[in-house]
């Protein structure tokens, strides 16, 4: 409604023009309405990190380590699993899953640091 009413009376508006006020008396400006959170750089960074993790899982870990990490953290479209669930599916003990996971995460950490 604000824009319609000002359209007749003015040809231009400023982004800092007050449109309304909230219950606390703070003004709402045009910029507040038009503003958009710019998270493009965060999204790109997250995508690059994901691709790096996938690459390191495929190149740094053996098949068993890679499979356990993928199952534990829900990589590849799976939902994350507990160590107990992974152990049951792989036919090994939960403590062995824990040791393999710890070793694999250390390898991945080393690959990221290099």
**What is the strand content?**
5-15%
Please tell me what the overall shape is. elongated
CATH architecture of the largest domain: Orthogonal Bundle
Total count of domains: 2
Largest sheet: 2 strands, antiparallel
CATH topology of the largest domain: Arc Repressor Mutant, subunit A
Radius of gyration: 26 Å
Oligomer: single chain
Strand order of the largest sheet: 1-2
Count of DSSP strands: 2
Structural class: mainly alpha
| Arithmetic mean pLDDT | 84
Low-confidence stretches: none
Percent helix among the residues? 55-70%
Instruction: Tally the helices.
Output: 6
Query: Topology as H/E string?
Result: HEEHHHHH
What is the end-to-end distance? 57 Å
- Output the CATH class name of the largest domain: Mainly Alpha
Architecture overview:
By secondary structure, the protein is mainly alpha-helical. It has two domains: 2-34, no CATH class; 61-113, Winged helix-like DNA-binding domain superfamily/Winged helix DNA-binding domain (Arc Repressor Mutant, subunit A). Helices cover 64% and strands 6% of the residues. Strands 1-2 form a two-stranded antiparallel sheet. A hairpin with a 5-residue loop joins β1 and β2 (27-29). α3 (40-60) packs across α6 (94-113) and α5 (83-90) crosses α6 (94-113). The longest helix has 21 residues, at 40-60. The mean pLDDT is 84.
């Amino acid at each position: 409604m604000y824009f319609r009413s000002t359209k007749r009376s003015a040809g231009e508006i400023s982004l800092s023009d007050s449109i309304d006020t909230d219950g606390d008396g703070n003004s709402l400006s045009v910029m507040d309405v038009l503003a958009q959170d710019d998270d493009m750089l965060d999204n790109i960074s997250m995508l690059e990190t994901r691709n790096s993790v996938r690459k390191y899982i495929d190149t740094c870990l053996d098949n068993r380590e890679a499979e356990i990490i993928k199952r534990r953290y829900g990589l590849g479209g799976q939902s994350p699993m507990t160590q107990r669930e992974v152990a049951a599916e792989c036919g090994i003990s939960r403590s062995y899953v824990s040791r393999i996971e710890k070793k694999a995460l250390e390898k991945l950490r080393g690959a990221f640091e290099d």
